[in-house]
Structure formats: structure tokens, C-alpha cells
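[Meeting: bench + compute handoff]

Bench side (C.D.) handed over the final construct sequence. Compute side (W.E.) agreed to return the predicted structure before the next meeting so the bench team could plan truncations. Sequence as handed over:
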Amino acid sequence: MITSNMAQKLCILLFCLSFMACKTQSSKIAPDANACLYKGKVQDFTGLDGCKLLIVLEDGSRLEPINYSETLKDKQNIAFSYEIVEDAMSICMAGKIVRLTCLEVMAD
């Protein structure tokens, strides 16, 4: 038979165990979390309807950045990271629409 004192201790024990079992996410960001992971070349596709500067990857696929700075110029080699933007629209339709999360202009 469980007494009220035992029930109280059991509740406290279960309460403490539930907090110890919780997995918390660290607020620390890995040092390379914002590292530029990909390499590509900026190319001017102004001749295609609605297109401007696109990033061409080594495999030939194209990315259309929506947040590039004025520092991007035709024929630049860059290192970058990106995330695909699912809800963006463009009339270019020559590549995936992306938001750059890291950008480094590389020497030629």
C-alpha cells in the first residue's frame, strides 16, 4: 500500500526524471555553419526572357539568387551556400530560385 508520503516522493522523482530526459538543443552555432560550401560561376543570362545574373554550378545546373549584392558580376568565380526558396516566383525559369546564405568572390 502506497502512503501519501511515498506518493509525494514518487511524484517528485518522476518530475525530476522527466526534466533529465528532455533533450535540449544547443544554442551554439557550429564554426562552419555559415561556410560557403559550393563553387560556381556567375553568368549573365540577360538574353533569356526575364533573366539576369545566374550562378552556374560545375554540373551545369543553374541557380537564380534573389538576394545577391551588386558585387556580383558576369564571369566571376564564387564560393557560396544557399537555401532553395519554394514560394518565390520568377519569369526567368532557367534555374532554381535560391537565397544566398554565404558568398565569397574568388580570385580568377
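W.E. noted at the follow-up: The chain is about 15% helix and 30% strand. C.D. will use this when planning the next construct.
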